[in-house]
């Protein structure tokens, strides 16, 4: 799938003869090398999960948050270059507070996704700026119900009912397609996401240690974006590990 | 620079479980008692309660600043939240900096709250004067309510006694402050959260014998 774009890949302002911008494609590769990020839209809300690969045993668990709240009702999970992600999250927060102060209501998720996407796209238009090396899964709950969007380094954004980015995205997407999301509640969704991130997608051989970070925004959390409560997270991890053992036992 | 729609005194005291605060619901337009359902006390975040006297529009602007402050605090999602002491400090900075630019927010604020069992009650004025105490009041409350509180306040007041004491202060203010209206709310904040009562009125008594036949000693006067 990868082709060498010799000569046409030096700048983000250069098209190749077959109409591709290689720099943007290389930026997408940065996303593919990071830990998997999954988002699903359930009946009553959104669940997002991140497989945080732990670089060192000395890192404090719970640090290096990958999922950030953008306003009360929405959150973003970032894959790829963490520093680039921080910049996008800061911009999203600023857009959200600005919309609230001008229009007096929380930013609709569709509007937020458009603003984030156009900001990411902006950085693909100038030769003195490099594209962002991160993919974003944005989940929120507004008047039109729960919505899930994904923004890629090229600046395109689509609305999804299930999305995955990062290393294990193919395996994750296959699993998500098997789920019956329209009937699932977020409580059940949390367990499913844990199962997918832990046993379907995580490669024990290549990356040993990882931490699972999950967040949701649903009716149960009063349409506020927050970390999944500890007891439910534990329950999900236990269920995922048992499923993994059962699978290994076969 | 002068205020247009103003609220009158706010009175607050510390009691056994937290803070009790009282304010009437009047918004005066100069000498006209124009608006009679103005809520002058609002909860801030999880741990604080803000009461304001002075220009109502400036109070609404302060609430917007605090809303953004609390939002950013919530977005950290790290288990911590801003307590009353922090909010009071923030308000002091805002009020003082505006005063230094000769563009004050024309309010006297009362900030009370409880966090981790610690009770806190402070006040900030429009020029940035701030302090904390066991009982505070703004405007006319300073002159009429605080002497009563100095006499009768003590540590660990029960809820009923605290309310009784506040009502005593508010009654004096109702009799003597021309911008007071007889429709007030009492708010309490404890570790468990904020409760603001439904509006109600105080009973007043106008049959004091000293005021019967006031022109007795001086015919023609009133």
TrEMBL record, chain A:
GO cellular component terms given for this protein: cytoplasm; nucleus; proteasome core complex, alpha-subunit complex
Protein name (Swiss-Prot/TrEMBL): Proteasome subunit alpha type
Keywords assigned by UniProt, alphabetized: Cytoplasm, Nucleus, Proteasome
Ranges where the Proteasome alpha-type subunits domain occurs: 8-30
Record keyword Nucleus present: yes
InterPro entries attached to this UniProt entry: Ntn_hydrolases_N (IPR029055), Proteasome_alpha (IPR050115), Proteasome_alpha-type (IPR023332), Proteasome_asu_N (IPR000426), Proteasome_sua/b (IPR001353)
Any one GO BP annotation for this protein: ubiquitin-dependent protein catabolic process
Function, as annotated: The proteasome is a multicatalytic proteinase complex which is characterized by its ability to cleave peptides with Arg, Phe, Tyr, Leu, and Glu adjacent to the leaving group at neutral or slightly basic pH. The proteasome has an ATP-dependent proteolytic activity.
Subcellular location: Cytoplasm; Nucleus
Subunit structure of this chain's protein: The 20S proteasome core is composed of 28 subunits that are arranged in four stacked rings, resulting in a barrel-shaped structure. The two end rings are each formed by seven alpha subunits, and the two central rings are each formed by seven beta subunits.
Top-rank lineage group of the source organism: Eukaryota
One Pfam family per UniProt: Proteasome
Species of origin: Gossypium raimondii (Peruvian cotton)
Main location: cytoplasm
Family: Belongs to the peptidase T1A family.
TrEMBL record, chain B:
Keyword annotations of the record: Cytoplasm, Nucleus, Proteasome
A Pfam family reported for this protein in Swiss-Prot or TrEMBL: Proteasome
Subcellular localization(s) per the UniProt record: Cytoplasm; Nucleus
A single BP term in Gene Ontology: proteolysis involved in protein catabolic process
UniProt cross-references to InterPro entries, sorted A to Z: Ntn_hydrolases_N, Proteasome_alpha, Proteasome_beta4, Proteasome_bsu_CS, Proteasome_sua/b, Proteasome_suB-type
Gene3D superfamilies in the cross-refs: Glutamine Phosphoribosylpyrophosphate, subunit 1, domain 1 (3.60.20.10)
Keyword presence, Nucleus: yes
Signal peptide: none
One cellular component term from this protein's GO annotations in UniProt: proteasome core complex, beta-subunit complex
PROSITE patterns cross-referenced by the UniProt entry: PROTEASOME_BETA_1, PROTEASOME_BETA_2
Free-text function comment from the UniProt entry: Non-catalytic component of the proteasome.
Assembly and interaction partners: Component of the 20S core complex of the 26S proteasome. The 26S proteasome is composed of a core protease (CP), known as the 20S proteasome, capped at one or both ends by the 19S regulatory particle (RP/PA700). The 20S proteasome core is composed of 28 subunits that are arranged in four stacked rings, resulting in a barrel-shaped structure. The two end rings are each formed by seven alpha subunits, and the two central rings are each formed by seven beta subunits. The catalytic chamber with the active sites is on the inside of the barrel.
PANTHER family listed in its UniProt record: PROTEASOME SUBUNIT ALPHA/BETA (PTHR11599)
Name this protein carries in UniProt: Proteasome subunit beta
Native species: Gossypium raimondii (Peruvian cotton)
């Amino acid at each position: 799938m990868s082709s060498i774009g010799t000569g046409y890949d030096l700048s983000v302002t250069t098209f190749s003869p077959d109409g591709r911008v290689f720099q943007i494609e290389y930026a997408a590769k940065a996303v593919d090398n990071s830990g998997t990020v999954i988002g699903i839209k359930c009946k009553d809300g959104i669940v997002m999960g991140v497989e945080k690969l732990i670089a060192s045993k000395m890192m404090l668990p719970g640090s290096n948050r990958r999922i950030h709240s953008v306003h009360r009702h929405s959150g973003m999970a970032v894959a790829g270059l963490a520093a680039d992600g921080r910049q996008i999250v800061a911009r999203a927060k600023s857009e959200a507070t600005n919309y609230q102060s001008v229009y007096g209501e929380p930013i609709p998720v569709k509007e937020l996704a458009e603003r984030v996407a156009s900001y990411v796209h902006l950085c693909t238009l100038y030769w003195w700026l490099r594209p962002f090396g991160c993919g974003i899964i944005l989940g929120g709950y507004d008047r039109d119900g729960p919505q899930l969007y994904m923004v890629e380094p090229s600046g395109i954004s689509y609305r999804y009912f299930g999305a995955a980015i990062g290393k294990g995205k193919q395996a994750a997407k296959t699993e998500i397609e098997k789920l019956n999301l329209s009937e699932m509640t977020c409580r059940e969704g949390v367990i499913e996401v844990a199962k997918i991130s832990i046993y379907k997608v995580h490669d024990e051989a290549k990356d040993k240690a990882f931490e699972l970070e999950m967040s949701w925004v649903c009716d149960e959390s009063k349409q506020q974006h927050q970390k999944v409560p500890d007891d439910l997270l534990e329950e999900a991890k236990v269920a995922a590990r048992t499923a993994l053992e059962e699978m290994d036992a076969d | 620079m002068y205020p247009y729609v103003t609220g009158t005194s706010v009175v607050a005291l510390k009691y056994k479980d937290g803070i009790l605060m009282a304010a009437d619901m009047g918004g005066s337009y100069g000498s006209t008692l124009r608006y009679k359902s103005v809520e002058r006390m609002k909860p801030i975040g999880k741990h604080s309660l803000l009461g304001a006297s002075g220009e109502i529009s400036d109070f609404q602007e302060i609430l917007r600043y605090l809303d953004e402050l609390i939002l950013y605090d919530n977005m950290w999602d790290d288990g911590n939240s801003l307590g009353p002491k922090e909010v009071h400090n923030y308000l002091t900075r805002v009020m003082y900096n505006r005063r230094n630019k000769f563009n004050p927010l024309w309010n006297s604020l009362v900030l009370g709250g409880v966090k981790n069992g610690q009770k806190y009650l402070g006040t900030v004025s429009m020029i940035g004067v701030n302090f904390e105490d066991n009982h505070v009041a703004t405007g006319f409350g300073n002159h009429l309510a605080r002497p009563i509180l100095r006499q009768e306040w003590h540590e660990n007041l029960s809820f009923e006694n605290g309310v009784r004491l506040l009502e005593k202060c508010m009654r004096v203010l109702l009799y003597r402050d021309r911008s007071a209206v007889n429709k007030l709310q009492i708010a309490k904040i404890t570790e468990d959260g904020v409760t603001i009562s439904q509006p109600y009125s105080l009973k007043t008594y106008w049959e004091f014998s000293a005021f019967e036949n006031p022109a007795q000693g001086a015919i023609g006067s009133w």
